[in-house]
Structure formats: C-alpha cells, structure tokens
Write a structure and sequence with these properties.
17 helices, globular, 7% strand, 480 residues, two-stranded antiparallel ribbon, iron, Chloroperoxidase, mainly alpha
Amino acid sequence: MRISLVLAVFTASSALAFPWMTPEGMEALMKHPEAQKEIKRRLEEHVGAQSGTVAPRDPQLGTGLIPGLIDLIGGTLKAVVDPIFGLIPTEDAVRGHKRFPEPEYPFRPPGSTDQRGPCPGLNTLANHGYIPRSGIATVGQIVAGCQAVFNMGADLGNLLASGGAIDGGDILSTKMSIGGPDPRVGILNGALNALLGTPTGIAGHGKFNEGDASATRLDFYLNNGDNIVFQPELFKQMHQAALLKGDGTYSAEAIKYHFKNRYEASRAANKQFYFNLPSAGVVMGAYYFIPGFFSNGTLGANGIANEASITSFYGAKPKDTSPNAWKNPNLEYTHVPERIPEQGWYRRTTPMTVAEAVGGILDVYLYAKPAIGGAGADQGFVAGPALIPNNPQALSCFFYNAIYANFPSELFNTVALVSSVVNFLSSSLVPGYKALGCKVDFPQASGIGSTYRETYEKWALQYTGEAKTKAVGSGWYKKP
C-alpha cells in the first residue's frame, strides 16, 4: 500500500514538472527487481528508525538503488527521490555536500595484477576500494561506486556500465574489466574464453566505452593498441586550455575547447580514425564529466574544477609544485595512481542523470561540430547516423537506441547469446529508456535467420550509420 502511494505521489509530481516522463516509465522503474528489494529494505529501515531499534540514516550516504525513500514529515507521507535513478533530485534527498576522502576507503596503489583503464573515475574508485581493487567489477558494483563517490544517478550509471558489459564484458555475470582483457572475466569465470574469446574490457576499441580523440589517452591505432596509458603531454594541453578558456579552471568552456583541438588532431593523424555513436557519445560525455564530476562541489553551484582536484583524479602530478606553478602554460606532468584529493573534496550535491549527461554531450557536440563516422578503407570518411537530434531528451532516446544498434550482427547466429543480451538490456536499460518517454521501437531480436538479421540491421543503420561496419577503425570492421 505504501509503495502504491509513493508511486502515485511521485508520478503525479513528475508529470507536472517533467511532462516527457511517463507513468509507464516510472512504474517500470519501481517494478525493477533491485528496486523492489531496496524499497522493502528502506521501509523496514524506516519502521526500525521510528521504533528506535535502528538509527536514522542520512539518505545521501546510501547506495542509491531506488527512488522511494519514505519519510513522515508533519504527518504527511512524502516520497523523496534518492539518487538511484536520480531523475528528480530534491533538497531532501541530498542534504548538502558530502566530504571526501573517507577513512574507511583508504587510497592504495594498484597491484601488478589489478586492472586499470582509460577512465580516471573508475581507476579512482578501484584505488579507494569503492569497487573491487582488482579492477574486475560487476554492473551493480560500478553503479553503486559511481553513486557513492560521484553522485552519478543510477540511470546514467546503468547505461554506461551495462554498455560496457555488453560490448566488453561477460553479459551473463555482468562482470567486466575496467581496463583491458583479463582471463578472470568471461563465461564461467573465463573457463570458456579459449573457445569464445576473452572479453576486451571497457578499453575495447570503438565498441562502447572507448573511442578516439580522448582527453588524455592516445588513439588505439596511434599507440600500437595502447589506449590506456595516461599521456602527460595531452594533459598539458588540457591544462593550457584551462588557462586560456577557464581562467585557470577546467571549466565546461575549457574542456569543450580541448575536445575540439583533440578531435581535429586525432582525425588528422589517425588513418583509422573512428568517432561514431554510441562510443563517440561516451567520449564527449567523458569530457563533460571532467567539470561535471571532478569539480570540488557542484558545477554551476559554486563548485570549481580547480587544478588540485582535476590533477588528483587524473593522476597528473606536476613536476613543479611551487604555489604559482599552475599558472605556467608549459607546466610538465608525470603520472601517479588516481585518487580522491587528499586535501579534501566535496562531491556534487545532486545526482547527474542521463538527461544532464546527454545535455552536456550535446553542448560539447554543438561547440566542436565534429563529423560523426570514421575513416574508410579508401581513405575517405564513412558517415555515421544521418540525423542526430539537437535536444537532450530526444538525443537521450537516440543514444539508448544506438546501444541496441551497436550489437554485432554475429549475435544472430547464437540464440542463447542473443536472448541473454536482450534480457539483460530489458532489465537494465529499458526502465530508464521508458522513464525518459522514449518509444521502444527496436525490432524483435531473439530469432535467427536472414529475415531477423535484415530487419534488425536496416533498423540499426539509422542509429549507427554505415561507419559501424565500413570504417576501418571500427571494432566491427571486417575486410571485404
């Protein structure tokens, strides 16, 4: 009964504030299996707190697994949106800034067998133990870790982590490496890797979470397949952008400028350049995440993406540590393991949702106007999708579709694998997809044979374009 009341109150207020958020989508979120478990736990916790058997809990300290934290204020039942799906954060859900680092999550450099990859945020989480220090983590662990430290809404966390598991991990266990291939990841804990191949990890080139024109990593084909190692010279270029466009801070304007320069340089130098959706969207999102997540405080609410915070999360150690060295555009850097700033750092107060992230991607895209696609075998440029929406809500739906469209066509030859992928996406992505008011129009993909494949590939073409299979830098490209 309480859950029904929460849903009714929440859906009604959501519809008024965000007309594109559908009741069907909210109902899907509330019926998610993880949501049901978390609702029950929160209810029991609330009853225990009222009776004095359980201490009251600050909602911002939770793992953020479902909206629906129930509180009784002045005798009125009130639904508070906790940062699970992070769709409509309220002041009640996040009571001020939370300070880091936390003593129960000490920094520890990675060991020789620990995976680290191209994402400084995930590397930081592993180095502090918010996700397994091995760098081998499940979708759920990544979602919880990103929420705990960066206040990433679970709609966004699920989208990014699920995409990584689909294209670079083990779909059945939802486990993946945050770096490159690892024998500990794969069906039956890697026992079948000799037969099926070892998953690439999130560093798998051109698939989902990795792409060319990175802020601080070289392109896969420009560095003998190494798209993981931090490049001090590229961070120096980003530092110069901060001085030129951000008054010394790594502001949104500074990172957009850095992206424009990196895109142009990467495309000019890389004969196998690949910048296509969905990976291109993730790359541009990673630029927005620099001020969006690493700022000391909330971007746009007196939060500052200052030198101390950004260098710590990137592991960029300046060679000159004198007080005014940061003003030097020629400041040189070395690399150390990524960590939460030692001097103290405050995470953003409200969860970053898919809508905000896609809005940031759109801002980066419209500033730089990069061509979407990739280098073709004849030295030409193969175009990606023809019509990319120019508003955050429509682009969010387009981005969800691009994930479905990024399936390799080989999946249609393996019924069990296709079924696993579709079921996984249905439980992990469709709730957020519906909550954004997106029309679920992707074709049925659980059958085999030419009819299913042709239907699916024709539909997918509008979301990935021909660049997916015809651009030589694509993870799906095969020589004719």
